[in-house]
């Protein structure tokens, strides 16, 4: 019989090896799926994983695009991972992302048509505050009444979506837009734009912030007392209380911080790649970031890599769609498989597999 | 020796095939960016029919590529860029929300032609825009609705309060009222382009209020599926023919037929005659088509409807011809006056006789 | 409220609410067993297409529902395998299940767009269906709606009146204690997950076979997420889930009916209101700590690994 035995410490070897194994297994399973759909599996796999990075025709464009796509995912996932480590479950990052974008954009539009260099910093602050405030709703309810934060944060995603639609149609609508829903374009207006910092790299302020967040989170978790408290609260909540960790403070910090980072991601997106507030401005980054956080094993560096891997499957998936005519649904299913394998195989880094029945027989 | 010979043979084969490829005319590559899945049975489905029509028309001389379910914003910009990098000669972007992205990508690829559906920004010489005069079709449906309703209550499932939708509502009601002064219009705003369950519920709510003719400006066939549950309720196919609900409850349909436009524009690229502009085609161009009018509609009414189609197609009749009053009683169009395109694309009011307010 | 007939309104909100009710009652059992499966949306849409395809191929809506339940349960076993045996995180695995389900259902459904489903007959009892008020509300629905009510009753009986229900709740309260008592924690949870999958599948099929009836990609449009909200709204009590589902479904139906009746409604606010109400209920529930503690499974979302 197969039995799992918990390792005292996660195996470093397996932690490094499982993602590779998972990707290989996904290639095999995905290849079978593509073959069933009548496409050449090798070509499809190559298009998804290889072409965005090394195809002469595309790579110069799609490599920087990896950063653009991964940036918000990493930024949100870093914030979420702190809470997840402490056992605080913010799954409403999508809503905080929307609020960050709406608040930041509102500030930018309030000063229109000014092109003052002070506007963008103000927008950044407003974006962070918007996301923070939205995340503080579940935080305050949890602290005051013990309300489940998973569900409150999730419900608030839907409220945020309704708010977004009403903003795009009402208060933030472009008065020169012929009555169409959607705000003025922020990325094409000096002062409110979030441009590429180094041309041709895709590196905008959001990506830069994501990298900084990775580094700060790493330092926080390894060098700072708060990081220690977060880890302790997650692994041994009772011990944490004895060690003087204030659980309420931790809830406020973790939810607030993850909300602020999600809000920033929204603000950088609306003032950069997306350009404007529209009815369906949010495209699921907040939810995908939860998966990214777990794929990265809640570790800052892991999240960085997981975000890039997710971005690769998005961009490679797009290439596969129009180069090979694969349906969008097949790419979605393929991504689902990849996540299953990555999540499932993680067991190998935390547990040892023992064939107990076999061993017992051998002994007797 | 044998080995060498084989190698030489292979090299020769490669050489000839390469030459053959170069000699055959390089096919024109046409890209399509879709906002929904091609299986939505409505908006995106019809654009994809247009793509297939282009393939059927030009055969080997074109190669089409497409991408479905592309979110508006950053993702669409990337998809367009990748299509341009893949060698597309012309790219059709088929959602209003792609407007800024289309112009941004067009700036980077001056040799690639871009065609943006339903938008108005043409910031670069290689961007054209196109749309259809759906209100022409709505006029015909309104005429049928006004005559067919027994309860004198007709309904309109509306998506978002934008000019295109308001044009449709006004045109529909105007022509229903012309043939039936007692008719009342119920509008339900569902705030979605696509949510089958909600669209069906909206239809149901109308039916319960005594509405017996319903048209919709949303993308799924769900309202027709709902209407099929109750006898005596009729409705219309939207965007595509929705022929599976023939002969009733679907008694006619307003079809977005992009085929002629797509074929014309791809041809222009092939001939090197492509020029920027805004195309707002309607029945005359074959872009707005009224699908087969079926059973429950009596023959004389069918003939009237076809007469309207003919008059609009020939340019003898414009659905917005005065006198038309606004809802508040002020004059929109004086006797004999015809609405300008400018007036239509900025339409943000109901005409007289419609009760209720436009949200926002 | 002008021209709205409350009887008709109630009858139609029952139909509109049945998909989310089915999905919610399944998820309720899953959560009672201590498992949080966020893949409800994915299981629903898979049930929607499998049920639809089977009904179209066989001409029998009943077989369609059976197939949807089996498909939902089988699909949920991916989640079960990953979270129970391979101890993956339940939140992330559930989200992945939804992603996979949306993709897979669209692939299966490619040949089923624009096809009509066979009609699911409505109950038509000679006298009862024609009664005023109770007739339309109680005696003139399709069979599946009654099945959904039976499932709610069954779940209530099972959880509160049977030994099996007691064990299931024990597993959800404290898997370590249940394990120490000799219960097969993983097996019980797998059964609960399968039941949840089957119910979600039925809910999806109710959408594609009765409520809308047709197949379109992404047709659940967020219904699975609402089901998750209802479970919490109900504070894990079956009959409250029924009320919650009818309330959530009812608000949407009411909003559309108010518009149809020509009453001016703030659409945005009304559309957001079910979620705000749920948050309010959550807060009220958690304030009275003792009662909430009785119902919320303590080990919700935690992985179980037998160390001994």
Description of the molecule:
The complex is a heterotrimer of chains A (364), B (360) and C (308). With 364 residues, chain A is mainly α. In chain A, 71% of the residues lie in helices and 3% in strands. Chain A has a domain at 72-304. Chain A contains 16 helices and two strands. Chain A starts with a strand and ends with a helix. Helix content of chain B is 40%, strand content 19%. Chain B is globular, with a radius of gyration of 24 Å. Chain B has two domains: 8-132, Response regulator (Rossmann fold); 134-255 and 289-345, 3-Layer(aba) Sandwich (Rossmann fold). At the A-C interface, helix 7, helix 12 and helix 14 of A face helix 3, helix 4, helix 10 and helix 12 of C.
Overall morphology of chain B: globular
Give the oligomeric state of the chains in this entry, treating copies of one chain as homo and distinct chains as hetero.
Answer: heterotrimer
Largest sheet of chain B: 6 strands, parallel
Task: Give the number of domains of chain B.
Answer: 2
Put simply, the count of helices of chain B is 11
**Mean pLDDT figure of chain A:** 86
Low-confidence runs of chain A = 358-364
CATH architecture of the largest domain in chain B: 3-Layer(aba) Sandwich
């Amino acid at each position: 019989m197969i039995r799992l035995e918990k390792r005292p410490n996660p195996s470093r070897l397996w932690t490094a090896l499982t993602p590779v194994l998972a990707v290989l297994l996904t290639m095999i399973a995905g290849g079978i799926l593509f073959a069933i759909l009548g496409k050449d599996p090798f070509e499809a796999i190559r298009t998804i994983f290889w072409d965005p990075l090394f195809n002469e025709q595309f790579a110069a464009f799609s490599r920087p695009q990896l950063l653009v796509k991964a940036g918000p995912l990493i930024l949100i996932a870093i914030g979420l991972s702190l809470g997840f480590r402490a056992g605080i479950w913010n799954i409403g990052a999508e809503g905080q992302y929307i609020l960050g974008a709406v608040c930041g954009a509102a500030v930018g539009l309030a000063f229109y048509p000014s092109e003052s260099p002070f506007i963008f910093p103000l927008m950044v602050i407003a974006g962070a505050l918007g996301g923070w405030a939205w995340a503080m709703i579940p935080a305050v309810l949890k602290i005051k009444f013990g309300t489940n934060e998973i569900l409150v944060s999730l419900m608030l995603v839907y409220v945020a979506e309704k708010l977004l639609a009403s903003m795009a149609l009402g208060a933030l609508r472009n008065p020169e837009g012929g009555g169409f829903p959607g705000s003025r374009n922020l990325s094409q207006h000096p002062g409110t734009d979030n441009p590429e910092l180094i041309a041709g790299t895709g590196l905008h302020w959001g990506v830069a912030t994501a990298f900084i967040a990775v580094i700060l989170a790493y330092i926080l978790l390894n060098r700072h007392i708060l990081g220690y408290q977060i880890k302790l609260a997650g692994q041994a909540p009772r011990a944490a209380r004895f060690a003087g960790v204030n659980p309420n403070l931790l809830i406020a910090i973790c939810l607030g911080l993850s909300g602020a980072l999600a809000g920033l991601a929204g603000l950088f997106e609306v003032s950069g790649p997306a350009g404007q507030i529209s009815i369906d401005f949010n495209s699921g980054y907040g939810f995908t970031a939860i998966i990214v956080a777990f794929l990265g094993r809640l570790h800052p560096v892991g999240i960085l890599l997981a975000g890039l891997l997710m971005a690769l499957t998005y961009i490679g998936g797009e290439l596969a769609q129009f180069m090979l005519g694969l349906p969008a649904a097949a790419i979605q299913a393929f991504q689902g498989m990849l996540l299953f394998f990555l999540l499932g195989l993680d067991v190998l880094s935390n547990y040892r597999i023992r064939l107990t029945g076999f061993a017992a027989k051998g002994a007797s | 020796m044998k080995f060498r010979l084989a190698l030489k043979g292979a090299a020769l084969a490669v050489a000839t095939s390469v030459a053959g490829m170069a000699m055959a005319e390089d096919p024109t590559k046409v890209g399509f960016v879709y906002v929904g899945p091609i299986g939505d049975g409505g908006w995106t489905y019809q654009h994809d029919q247009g793509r297939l029509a282009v393939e059927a028309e030009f055969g080997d001389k074109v190669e089409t590529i497409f991408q479905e379910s592309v979110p508006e914003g950053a993702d669409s910009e990337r998809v367009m860029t990748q299509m341009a990098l893949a060698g597309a000669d012309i790219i059709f972007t088929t959602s209003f929300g792609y407007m800024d992205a289309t112009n941004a990508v067009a700036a980077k690829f001056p040799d690639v032609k871009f065609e943006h559906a339903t938008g108005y920004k043409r910031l670069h010489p290689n961007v054209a825009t196109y749309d259809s005069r759906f209100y022409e079709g709505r006029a015909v449906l309104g005429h049928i609705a006004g005559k067919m309703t027994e309860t004198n209550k007709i309904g309109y499932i509306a998506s978002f309060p934008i000019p295109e939708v308001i044009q449709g509502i006004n045109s529909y009601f105007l022509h229903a009222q012309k043939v039936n002064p007692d008719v009342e219009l119920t509008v339900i705003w569902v705030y979605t382009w696509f949510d089958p369950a909600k669209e069906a519920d909206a239809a149901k709510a109308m039916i319960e209020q005594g509405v017996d003719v319903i048209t919709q400006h949303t993308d799924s066939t769900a309202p027709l599926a709902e209407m099929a549950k109750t006898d005596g309720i009729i409705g219309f196919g939207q965007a595509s023919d929705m022929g599976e609900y023939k002969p009733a409850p679907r008694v006619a349909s307003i079809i977005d037929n992009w085929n002629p436009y797509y074929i014309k524009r791809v041809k222009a690229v092939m001939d090197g005659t492509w020029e920027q502009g805004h195309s707002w085609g309607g029945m005359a161009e074959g872009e707005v088509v009224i699908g087969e009018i079926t059973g429950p509609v009596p023959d004389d009414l069918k003939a009237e409807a076809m007469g309207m189609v003919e008059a609009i197609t020939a340019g003898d009749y414009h659905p917005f011809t005065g006198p038309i009053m606004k809802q508040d009683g002020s004059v929109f169009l004086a006797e004999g006056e015809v609405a300008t395109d400018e007036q239509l694309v900025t339409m943000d009011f109901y005409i007289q006789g419609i009760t209720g307010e436009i949200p926002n | 409220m002008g021209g709205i007939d409350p009887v008709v309104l109630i009858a139609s909100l029952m139909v509109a609410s049945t998909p989310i009710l089915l999905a919610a009652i399944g998820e309720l059992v899953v959560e009672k067993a201590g498992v949080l499966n966020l893949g409800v949306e994915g299981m629903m849409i898979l049930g929607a297409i499998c049920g639809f395809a089977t009904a179209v191929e066989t001409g029998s809506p009943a077989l369609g529902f059976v197939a949807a339940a089996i498909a939902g349960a089988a699909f949920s076993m991916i989640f079960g395998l990953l979270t129970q045996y391979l101890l993956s995180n339940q939140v992330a695995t559930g989200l992945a299940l939804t992603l996979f389900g949306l993709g897979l259902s669209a692939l299966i459904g490619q040949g089923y767009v624009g096809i009509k489903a066979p009609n699911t007959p409505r109950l038509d009892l000679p006298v009862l269906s024609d009664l005023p008020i109770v007739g339309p509300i109680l005696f003139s629905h399709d069979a599946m709606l009654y099945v959904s009510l039976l499932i709610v009753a069954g779940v209530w009986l099972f959880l509160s009146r049977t030994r099996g229900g007691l064990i299931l709740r024990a597993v959800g309260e404290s898997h370590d204690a249940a394990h120490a008592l000799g219960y097969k924690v993983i097996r019980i949870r797998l059964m609960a997950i399968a039941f949840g999958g089957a119910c979600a599948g039925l809910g999806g099929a109710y959408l594609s076979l009765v409520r809308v009836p047709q197949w379109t990609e992404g047709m659940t449009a967020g219904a699975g997420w609402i089901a998750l909200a209802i479970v919490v709204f109900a504070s894990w009590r079956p009959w409250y889930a029924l009320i919650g589902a009818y309330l959530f479904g009812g608000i949407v139906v009411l909003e559309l009916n108010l518009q149809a009746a020509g009453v001016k409604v703030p659409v945005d606010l009304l559309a957001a209101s079910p979620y705000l109400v749920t948050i309010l209920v959550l807060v009220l529930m958690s304030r009275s700590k003792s009662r909430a503690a009785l119902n919320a499974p303590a080990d919700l979302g935690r992985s179980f690994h037998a160390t001994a």
